[in-house]
Each structure stands twice: as C-alpha cells, then as structure tokens.
Specification:
Layout lengths: L1 E4 L2 E4 L4 E4 L2 E3 L3 H12 L5 E2 H8 L7 H14 L10 E4 L3 E4 L3 E5 L2 E5 L7 H6 L12 E4 L3 E3 L8 H13 L6 E2 L2 H4 L9 H8 L3 E10 L2 E10 L5 E10 L3 H28 L9 H12 L4 H17 L4 H16 L6 H18 L4 H13 L3 H14 L4 H13 L3 H14 L6 H13 L4 H13 L5 H13 L3 H14 L5 H7 L5 H13 L3
Parallel strand pairs: 10-12, 10-13, 11-13
Antiparallel strand pairs: 1-2, 1-8, 2-3, 3-4, 5-7, 6-7, 8-9, 13-14, 14-15
Length: about 525
C-alpha cells in the first residue's frame, strides 16, 4: 500500500519514503511514527499510543518522541510552525492533517484528514438501539453496464451474482438475497432508499465497461446511512482473461470486506457512548484495539470483547476474540502466568467453535491455541479447515503458511504466504506475513534472501519485538554482522528479558537442524 500526499509517497510494503524519483533516507522509528500517523489520519494519535506502538511500551521521554516527529517534518520540508503535514495537539498527541491518497495497483481513494466530517454519521446513530441494524448487513446490486458490452454484457449480472454466493461464506455478515437486491435496478435510486427497503447497512455495486478487447470493472462499498464510499477498487485486463479477472474480483472483494467493514464499524462505534454499544459494535471496536499489538490495547480489547459477550453470550466471534487476546498475551510474554493464558486461549476458542463451527476466524483462533503448545500438526489441521470454509481468508492462509514454514515445508509455505500477501496487502498481520516469507528461506538455507524479507518485516508498522528478533537471527545466519547487531540492540531496547529459549517456545521449529542454526545465531548475538 502506498500513501500519496503532496509530492511524497509513503510505501508501506517496501518501507520507503519517496519524493518524485528520489528515495528519502529516514530512520526506522521516524518511518514508523509517520506511518502510524498517516494510517490513523482520521483522528489524533496520543503520545501514549505512539510510544506503545513504536517503542513497544518502554519508557521514552517526550523529548525523544518530539525529536522523531521533528525528523519526520524535516523529511517532508515541514516544521513546527507551519505544520502542513503533522499537527501538534499540545499536551496530547499528533495528527496527520494533509490530504492523502491511498493507492494500490493504480487504484486510488482520496480522503481528507483535516476536513473529514462525521456529523451525518454521528447523527444517524442517535437512533434507539432497537431501531438500529445490529449485525453488519449488505446488498449486492446489479452492476451498471457502460456502453455496449456485446457478448460480455451479461457480466454486469454474472459478477454480482457470483459475489452474492462468495460473500455468503462470511457468516458474520448478513447478505440480502439475489431475488430482493436484483429488483433494485434503477440507477437513480438513492442508497438510503435501498438501505431502508432491504434493511441493510451497506451496498456493493459497480460498473462494467468492455472496449477494445479490454474489460474494466469498478467496485464500490457504500454506507447506506450517509452514502459515503467505504472502499473502492478497479480491475482491468484483456477480455481473453475474463475468467481470471472474475476470480480476482471475487477474492479481492471478499478480503476487502473482511477488513473494511470491521474498520468502518469500529469508526462508527467510536462516536457512540460506551453504554450504547451493541454486541457487534463492541466487538468491532475491540478488533481495532487488538490489531495494535501492544499491552495497553490488548487490555482494552479484552474489556470490549467481554462487553460484547455480556450483551450476546452466543456471539462466537467475540469468544474467538478473547481467545486471540490470551494467545497474544502468552505468545508475547505479556503476563507472568503464561500457562493460564494458554488454557484460557483454548477455552474461549472451544466455546467459539461450539457456537459456530463454520466461522473461519473461529477455526483460525482454535488452530493458534495448538501453536502455543508446539503441536504444529493439530494446529495446521484447524488452519486448513478455516481456509476450506473460506478459501480467500487471508489470515488463515498466512497461519497455514507460518506453520508449514516451521515444519520445513518451504515450497508449500511459500505458495500460501505469497497468496496471503497478494490477497490482503493491508492486513494487520502483514508484518507477520513478511516474516513467514523469511522463514521459508531459512528452512532451505537461503539466508541472504531470508534476511531481505526479515528486514522488511521488522521495519513494517505493527511489527512486535519477536519480529525484530527474527531479523537479528536471520542477518546473523547470512553473515551480516552489522544488521544482526542493529536488530539485536533493537530487541534489547524493547524487551531486555527476552532469551533464545523464549524464541524457541514462540516458534517451535520441527527441524532440529533449522532450530539449531537459529539458536546458534541468537547465542552468538548474546541471547
């Protein structure tokens, strides 16, 4: 994903800040601060959140944070007086205020940071709880054909029809039946009317244009309350590749909705009083905290998932969310009672499976509980089940690849992790996907290539301290002492208590040779 603002581009995947054709050199922490601010440009980011996310919660002075912000401004030709890009909210935090364009593969969506209004959204949510649509709900409308599509005109109906079938796999999302949504073909109908008639919060619609042996398809996800575009993308290719394009549209739309609707629901929930949150709103707000991967947000997410369950004890994903919380606590050594968290992770996952055995996220969380015990075979079985239920579930595919990489099944792991990265380049677990790609190379002795991927992983937003430990070990294996020491110091600065035994427990490698190589590398670095 690339963020474009003014003359600059911030490339998250390659961890680069560019101006025109030039790459600007900035320190990793400065990049991480800038990425965090621009990714959360619709709100102020507190000093505490920046420190927790960028420095992993260790004690950092306000002066150190201010120094990184100053460096980011200098890289952008900004300063504390003009504050064209980064605004200081005195005593509280910072906010990215410039207009930014988010792009991937030529598709772009613009959102203004400074002028982004939520008045209509907030007003819409003053309705009594009983009158609100509690579960996310969506109608897929017939696509609009632009021009004469000839023999391919039927795609305007075939594509949305296929999407209804695919999206029905998302058990957390209510999909209006084709017989209802396809009756609303009038392009002049307002989205608010469609929402009222069908009782849905979201509409998915698009356009199909065929010309000069090429096909172009645009897709939009729209909020029916205020008519705002939540997500949009554009697909194009040679007409001879129409079947491949159809498959790409199905997979990318499925993954996008898994990410974009929860983010949007969490944004809505932020404007509601805590006492007025329903089960789904509390869950989606909990997800937002969960995916920040730090101690403080882990605690906040746990409280919101508990609140969700108190409102709806049969909500499987909220139980799965609590399993995720305890997995993360045990995996990251956030607690002195790791064994208890392992037990709790399993207990909540089992309850989630009992409530909804066909939810891919539920199966994903169950698989990770076996990971904590080093039982890769049983773990893999649950991940495979999650991707059988939903073949485009990127987090399940990533977890399957990670487990395969630890089992030294490099070829299978590489195929799966490349698919996960392609399906969900904005995933909260993107840094872990890159680290998995590194491990696929470690398993076959390709240490130089492994180091390249590990470095990208460790520099990616959200990457926790164990990812930096991977980078240290892999650089050492590749003979790059300078970078190995750099990441080793980074690990010690963030958590001076981590040992190579902790690493071995978190990443239970099946191959004795692979495990021994990594352990020797960490020992050489003083762990």
């Amino acid at each position: 994903m690339i963020y474009q603002f003014g003359p600059f581009e911030l490339d998250i995947a390659s961890v680069e800040l560019r101006s025109g054709e030039s790459r600007l050199n900035i320190e990793p922490q400065v990049f991480a601060v800038l990425a965090l601010l621009i990714e959360n440009r619709d709100r102020m980011v507190t000093k505490e959140e920046i420190i927790e996310k960028v420095w992993d919660g260790r004690i950092v002075s306000d002066a150190a944070l201010a120094s990184r912000v100053k460096s980011a401004r200098q890289a952008l030709g900004d300063d504390g007086k003009s504050q064209q890009f980064i605004r200081t909210i005195h005593g509280r935090g910072y906010r990215f205020v410039a207009d930014a364009r988010m792009s991937r593969g030529g598709a772009a969506v613009q959102r203004s940071s400074a002028n982004h209004s939520t008045d209509t959204k907030s007003a819409a949510f003053q309705l009594p709880l009983a009158e609100r649509i509690l579960k996310p709900s969506l109608a897929v409308l017939p696509f609009r054909l632009i021009g004469d599509g000839g023999r391919y005109a039927s795609l305007a109906v075939a594509l949305p029809d296929e999407l209804i079938t695919e999206l029905s796999r998302l058990r957390w999302l209510f999909i209006s039946a084709r017989g209802s949504s396809f009756r609303l073909r009038n392009p002049e109908t307002e989205f608010s009317e469609i929402g009222a008639v069908l009782g849905v919060r979201y509409c998915l619609w698009g356009t199909v244009e065929v010309s000069d042996r090429r096909i172009v398809v645009g897709v939009e996800l729209v909020d029916t309350i205020d008519g705002g575009v939540v997500w949009a993308d554009r697909f194009s290719g040679a007409i001879d590749d129409v079947h491949a394009i159809r498959e790409e549209i199905r997979s990318r739309v499925l993954v996008a909705l898994e990410l974009q609707i929860p983010i949007h629901e969490a944004s809505i929930a932020l404007h509601a009083a805590p006492g007025n949150l329903d089960a789904w709103s509390a869950y989606h707000l909990g997800l937002q905290h969960l995916y920040r991967f730090n101690r403080l947000d882990n605690v906040a997410a746990e409280a919101l998932f508990q609140q969700s369950i108190s409102l709806d004890p049969y909500f499987a994903r909220a139980h799965a969310g609590l399993s995720f919380i305890h997995f993360q606590t045990a995996f990251m050594r956030y607690s002195d009672h790791i064994d208890e968290d392992v037990v709790e992770a399993r207990r909540f996952a089992e309850r989630a499976v009992e409530l909804d055995p066909l939810d891919p996220f539920v199966n994903f969380t169950m698989g990770r509980t076996y990971w904590l015990e080093g039982d890769l075979d049983r773990s893999l079985g649950w991940f495979e089940r999650s991707t059988t239920i939903c073949p485009h579930f990127a987090q399940g595919i990533y977890a399957q690849a990670w487990t395969e990489s630890l089992a030294t099944r490099a070829a299978e792991a590489r195929t799966h992790i490349d698919l996960a990265i392609r399906l969900s380049p904005l995933d909260p677990l993107h840094y872990a996907m890159l680290a998995t790609r590194a491990f696929t190379h470690v398993g076959v002795g390709e240490d130089i290539e492994a180091a390249r991927w590990a470095d990208r992983a460790a520099r990616s937003p959200g990457a926790h301290v164990l990812i930096a430990m991977i980078a240290a070990a892999v650089h050492a294996l590749g003979g790059d002492t300078k970078h190995a020491e750099f990441w080793a110091q980074n690990v010690r600065a963030r958590n001076g208590n981590l040992t190579r035994a902790d690493f071995a427990r978190s990443f239970p490698m099946k191959s004795e040779d692979m495990r021994a190589r990594v352990q020797r590398a960490l020992a050489h670095l003083g762990f």
